[in-house]
């Protein structure tokens, strides 16, 4: 145990560089997936058949492609098509697109959970579709989707480790590099696991808080 703490003190500063990139990838992809997911969801519930079918098709395609394949495509294939992305850009874009499908389903479920009577009442006083969404539906839907949104945040934090496959030196890759050069696999990966757990626990508690609040309503 004494050896572990000695190794932890030695490797911790290096791994913190990986933590910084992990946070950047997670936040960037979370923001992108939120925006795209909301767009896909709004298309699904728009009542316009062409938009609804297009959104459903996009969601199915995105969900059917493994994240690692999407990352490889963005980083290794796109340059052949004339679009070159840095590893960090490809990681954020890939994870953001991948998770936008799950965000879309969460948002759609939240929107469809709103009482149709409220929508009809808003339209009866002259509100258009977009105004009804913005002032009546979305504020209530946000409260409904907060617990699953929190779960997406946790999964995205853990899946940010897949960015290591396209050379983003986030926490998982930093750990792998240290382990391969020092052969202290137990110490390094135990520390990496603890650091992921430390980042995840606040999110887990936040999700639990949202679930309790939702259960009281």
Detailed description of the structure:
This protein has 217 residues and is mostly helical. It has a single domain (2-216), classed as MetI-like (MetI-like fold, Orthogonal Bundle), CATH 1.10.3720. It is 83% helix and 0% strand. It has eight helices and no strands. It has helices at residues 2-44, 49-64, 67-77, 87-112, 116-124, 129-159, 171-182, 185-216. Helix 1 (2-44) packs antiparallel against helix 2, helix 1 (2-44) packs antiparallel against helix 6 (129-159) and helix 1 packs antiparallel against helix 7. The longest helix has 43 residues, at 2-44. The chain is flat, with a radius of gyration of 21 Å.
């Amino acid at each position: 145990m004494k050896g572990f703490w000695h190794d932890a003190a030695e490797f911790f500063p290096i791994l913190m560089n990986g933590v910084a990139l992990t946070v950047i990838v997670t936040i960037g992809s979370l923001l992108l997936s939120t925006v795209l997911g909301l767009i896909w969801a709004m298309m699904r519930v728009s009542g316009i058949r062409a938009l609804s079918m297009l959104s459903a098709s996009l969601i199915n395609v995105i969900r059917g492609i493994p994240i690692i394949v999407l990352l490889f495509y963005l980083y290794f294939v796109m340059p052949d098509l004339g679009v070159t992305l840095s590893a960090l850009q490809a990681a954020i874009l890939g994870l953001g697109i991948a998770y936008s499908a799950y965000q879309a389903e969460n948002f759609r479920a939240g929107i469809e959970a709103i009482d149709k009577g409220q929508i009809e009442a808003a339209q009866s006083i002259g509100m258009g579709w977009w105004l009804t969404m913005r002032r009546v539906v979305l504020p209530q839907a946000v409260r409904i989707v907060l617990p699953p949104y929190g779960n997406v945040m946790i999964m995205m934090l853990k899946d940010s480790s897949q960015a290591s496959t396209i050379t983003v030196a986030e926490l998982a890759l930093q750990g792998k590099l240290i382990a391969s050069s020092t052969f202290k696999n137990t110490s390094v990966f135990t520390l990496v696991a603890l650091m992921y757990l430390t980042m995840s626990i606040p999110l887990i508690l936040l999700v639990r808080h949202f679930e309790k609040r939702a259960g009281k309503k």
